[in-house]
Amino acid sequence: MINISGAGHYTLGEWPVCRMGYGAMQLAGPGVFGPPKDPAMARRVLEGAIEAGVDHIDTSDFYGPHITNQLIREALHPYPDQLHIVTKVSARRDEKGAWLPALSPEELTRAVEDNLRHLGLETLEVVNLRSMIDPHGPAEGSLEAPWTTLLELKERGLIRHLGLSNVTATQVREAQKSGDVACVQNQYNLAQRQDDALIDALAGQNIPYVPFFPLGGFTPLQSDALDEVAARIEATPMQVALAWLLQRSPNILLIPGTSTLSHLEENLDAANLVLPHSELAVLDRIYRSEEGDRPWTGHGV
Ligand SMILES: NC(=O)c1ccc[n+]([C@@H]2O[C@H](COP(=O)([O-])OP(=O)(O)OC[C@H]3O[C@@H](n4cnc5c(N)ncnc54)[C@H](OP(=O)(O)O)[C@@H]3O)[C@@H](O)[C@H]2O)c1
């Protein structure tokens, strides 16, 4: 039985959650579109996560679309009291699976209602507004209009907390002028560390930072240095990548994604891995060697 308590806890919204969670995006079919090849395995992955103590699952109704939320409901409803499901809005899929912005008040309201219905919930505990100004990465521009719509849906009691995704530090500050930001979910991992300064700024405000693509996303991380560290400490490269994130900052909450039980178990077990300073220093240099300058100076070693 895997025990994930080694990851510790951090407050998300109003709840202390285990820092080792699960991201459900990989449960849909290829390209996050359509049903999975093996729906029974998808449900077993979700059940396995809960059995191991995962209390934070990340999802969206645009995964599938609808499929991932329906799988979560089928596998886990009625939900354990301690489970916190975080969803995101601002996109829709066309009939070929393309991701299109869906940010009008009507579209955002429909997305919140769809999430509620497909997950079988009366209130969404955390909804992330995902910026679509540039779908591929954070880009400046005001998010005031969609943020205001979501604040109104929160006022109506459909949402408990709001977060942001794919955003810049400026957009976080803009949102905070009119409401609390419960979490920020951006791309970040050993090799993609453009958010180093943002992570530290959020930590100073006790706001969780939830890296998406913690393992590199659809093409998992490949690095000789990562492989060498993993071999030296007798762990797998993916476990080392997750443990590095856990040791990067206490406000980081992990949501690694997988569609298989064996990868789930491997990933969750990283909660118990403590990387020595000498290996952290090697891993810290992966980004420096690939990306040049950056603001963060490593794990203090
Ligand atoms: N806000 C956003 O814009 C956004 C964007 C993307 C994702 N997300 C969220 O972030 C979560 C995490 O991102 P992600 O799932 O896309 O990427 P990820 O966690 O970085 O990696 C998932 C990929 O790694 C593979 N994998 C997982 N565990 C592995 C292991 N132990 N060994 C080898 N390969 C392994 C998976 O394949 P298998 O299925 O074969 O294990 C899958 O291809 C998502 O589930 C989603 O909830 C948010």
The proportion of residues in beta strands is 5-15%
Q: Name the CATH class.
A: Alpha Beta
- Please name the fourth-level CATH homologous superfamily: NADP-dependent oxidoreductase domain
Number of helices: 10
Q: Name the overall outline.
A: globular
Strand order of the largest sheet: 3-4-5-8-9-10
How many strands, what sense, and barrel or not for the largest sheet? 6 strands, parallel
| Class by SSE composition | alpha/beta
CATH architecture name: Alpha-Beta Barrel
The oligomeric state of the chains shown is single chain
GO molecular function, one term: oxidoreductase activity
Domain NADP-dependent oxidoreductase: 19-287
GO cellular component, one term: cytoplasm
InterPro entries: AKR, Aldo-Keto_reductase, NAD(P)_OxRdtase_dom_sf, NADP_OxRdtase_dom
Give an overview of the whole structure.
With 301 residues, the protein is of the alpha/beta class. The protein has one domain (9-218, 250-257): NADP-dependent oxidoreductase domain (TIM Barrel). It is built from ten helices and ten strands. The chain has helices spanning 39-51, 67-76, 105-119, 144-155, 169-176, 196-204, 224-233, 237-248, 261-269, 277-291, and strands at 9-12, 15-18, 22-23, 56-58, 84-89, 91-93, 99-101, 124-130, 159-165, 184-185. The strands form three sheets. Strands 3-4-5-8-9-10 form a six-stranded parallel sheet, with helices on one face. It has a two-stranded antiparallel sheet with strand order 1-2. A hairpin with a 5-residue loop joins strand 6 and strand 7 (99-101). The longest helix has 15 residues, at 105-119. The chain is globular. The structure holds NADP nicotinamide-adenine-dinucleotide phosphate. Residues 23-26, 58, 88, 130, 165-166, 185, 212-218, 220, 238, 255-260, 263, 266-267 line the site of NADP nicotinamide-adenine-dinucleotide phosphate. Pfam families: Aldo_ket_red. Residues 19-287 form the NADP-dependent oxidoreductase domain.
